[in-house]
Design goal:
By secondary structure, this protein is of the alpha/beta class. The chain has two domains: 69-74 and 235-263 and 312-494, Rossmann fold, CATH 3.40.50.11350; 96-231, Rossmann fold, CATH 3.40.50. Helices cover 48% and strands 7% of the residues. It has helices at residues 2-50, 58-69, 105-122, 143-146, 149-155, 186-192, 218-231, 236-252, 265-271, 279-291, 302-307, 315-325, 343-351, 360-363, 366-369, 376-389, 400-411, 422-433, 439-449, 470-475, and strands spanning 78-79, 96-99, 125-127, 162-163, 175-178, 201-204, 256-260, 332-335, 357-358, 392-395, 488-489. The strands form three sheets. A five-stranded parallel sheet has the order 4-3-2-6-5. A four-stranded parallel sheet has the order 9-8-7-10. The protein has a two-stranded antiparallel sheet with strand order 1-11. It starts with a helix and ends in a 7-residue tail after the last strand. Residues 38-57 have low confidence and may be disordered. Bound molecules: 2-acetamido-2-deoxy-beta-D-glucopyranose (2 copies). One 2-acetamido-2-deoxy-beta-D-glucopyranose (NAG) is lined by residues 301, 303-304.
């Protein structure tokens, strides 16, 4: 009994000791975390101070170099686009599909890749798509002006039969005209095959976003990747000039940032973003919006748009952003975009912080540019090539180009792509403007906010939870923004 009581007492004091120990450990742990955390902040601050300091220690500088230029870890992932063992070679089909591709260059490219997959599902022979000549870009280029047509046909011959033109005898045949449903599933297209009972030719009036992002067979998803990343090569003149321009950039600096500065008139008018513009400019954008029939929303509050993160970053904001991320003033920045609204005056808001801003016209000779004038899609193709090859890709707005380039860079090995958190940034910028934050604090917050927005591997995102039905399909992350897991694999086992 006595022994028993004693051991109970011992147990009680034992647990008292362990509780105190526990508290001490927690306390020490919090101190530890606190120290680590404050060191982190301190380090960040020191770095921003050090940027202009010539005596910057070497190790510090290298650390910074890796941070701003180094790609995210690819985690041993690699592209995988080969068909599975079940996949059968295409048969010669006497059903035909003609396509009118709509939108700007990148919308057309992803649309065409989708149409290759749809032709495969429908067991149709695909006729080389017609390109959009009426969109904002008003480009008269044909498919073969922009893409390597022979390569396109040849490289997909196991997947889909592709012909340059409809056979003569079918030119006047009645066509089943079809506006395919947006983000359509496999079952939708299986039903469409019923149309073959009535028609030998189906005409597709629009190619953008006609295929779901998810829920399709692996072989169809891989076909989309092969079509976009391997078969839709640009035509030799574009490809060659693009490579030349990349070389010229690299001769100016070891590394460069490709900035897709979507600060173009159409985008500002469409989004109603007039922050930093004067009254007459704002009025001009409003008039353009009112006169553009297919833009449905006319009345837009610019302030609301901006604080909700829906505006493209302005050239000035991009400058503050890049500086906050730690890019030195000497950084070479290539502007991958059409005409900047407000021209050089507005661009100087960026160039004042980063004097090595390069626009296309500074890289290309008159002679080289001759055949590109009035061909917005072809110059966009040059920007695409330069953006894919850059060390860092930074889109100032989420759009078709940003999506396509980000996805392609992921596919090629998770090259660094910085996706600005525009909503968060605007808040920081406004606090800076109001004098509530100083530059080191801005730098700290901006870096924190973008730690996980550098293009590191992750699986494609789903639609936000709570959204049902067709709206879901629209809100899922685009297949072409992130073709992981279907076209990016970790081990060989996943490939089959
Ligand atoms: C594809 O179409 C051809 C004729 O157009 C037909 O002979 C063949 O059976 C079809 N294949 C499938 C899998 O439906
Ligand atoms: C636009 O929205 C802001 C913020 O919500 C508001 O303060 C402002 O009055 C609005 N402007 C107009 C013209 O409605």
């Amino acid at each position: 009994m006595g022994n028993h009581r004693q051991s109970r007492k011992a147990k009680r004091s034992h647990s008292a000791i362990s509780i105190s120990l526990y508290i001490v450990i927690i306390f020490l742990f919090s101190i530890f975390i606190f120290i680590i955390y404050s060191r982190d902040i301190l380090l960040d601050h020191q770095q921003t101070h050090f940027q202009t300091d010539k005596d910057q220690p070497k190790s510090e500088k290298m650390f910074n170099d890796v941070q701003i230029w180094g790609p995210p870890s690819g985690k041993g992932l690699h592209p995988c686009v080969k068909p599975t063992t079940k996949y059968k070679a295409a048969q010669v089909s006497d059903h035909y599909m003609t396509v009118k591709s709509n939108g700007g260059l990148n919308q057309m490219r992803t649309g065409i890749a989708d149409m290759v997959a749809v032709a495969r599902i429908l067991n149709a022979t695909l006729i080389i798509p017609q390109l959009d000549k009426r969109s904002f870009w008003k480009d008269t280029s044909t498919f073969s002006d922009i893409f390597d047509e022979i390569h396109f046909i040849e490289s997909l011959k196991e997947d889909v039969r592709i012909l340059k033109e409809l056979p003569k005898e079918l030119e006047s045949a009645p066509r089943g005209r079809k506006h395919f449903s947006s983000w359509a599933a496999m079952s939708y297209y299986e039903e469409i095959t019923q149309m073959w009972n009535e028609y030998q030719v189906i005409h597709v009036a629009k190619s953008d976003s006609r295929l779901a992002n998810n829920g399709l067979p692996l072989d169809i998803q891989r076909l989309r990747c092969r079509a976009l990343y391997q078969s839709l090569r640009f035509s030799p003149p574009i490809e060659n000039l693009g490579k030349k321009l990349v070389k010229r950039l690299r001769s100016r600096a070891k590394r460069y940032v490709a900035l897709h500065l979507r600060y173009e008139k159409d985008m500002l008018s469409f989004t109603g973003c007039t922050h930093g513009l004067d009254v007459s400019e704002a009025e001009e954008l409003k008039v353009m919006r009112e006169n553009t029939n297919h833009w449905k929303v006319k009345d837009i509050n610019s302030t609301d748009q901006r604080i909700n993160g829906l505006c493209p970053l302005t050239p000035k904001e991009v400058g503050v952003f890049l500086k906050a991320l730690g890019y030195p003033p000497s950084t070479l920045i290539y502007i991958a975009a059409g005409e900047i609204y407000g021209g050089n005056t507005r661009l100087s808001d960026l160039a004042s912080r980063f004097p090595n801003v390069i626009v296309k016209e500074m890289l290309v000779t008159e002679e080289e540019m001759k055949s590109f004038y009035d061909h917005a899609s072809q110059t966009a193709a040059l920007d695409y090539i330069i953006s894919i090859e850059s060390d860092v890709f930074l889109p100032s707005h989420s759009g078709n180009m940003a999506i396509a380039v980000e996805g392609h860079r992921r596919f090629l090995g998770h090259r660094k792509t910085i996706t600005p958190d525009r909503k968060g940034l605007v808040e920081i910028f406004d606090n800076l403007e109001a004098g509530k934050l100083d530059e080191p604090m801005v730098s700290h917050f901006v870096r924190q906010l973008h730690k996980n927005r550098q293009g590191a591997p992750r699986k494609r995102g789903e639609a936000p939870s709570g959204i049902r039905g067709r709206a879901r399909l629209r809100l899922e992350e685009s297949f072409y923004q992130n073709p992981y897991p279907e076209c990016i694999c970790g081990s060989n086992r996943e490939e089959r």
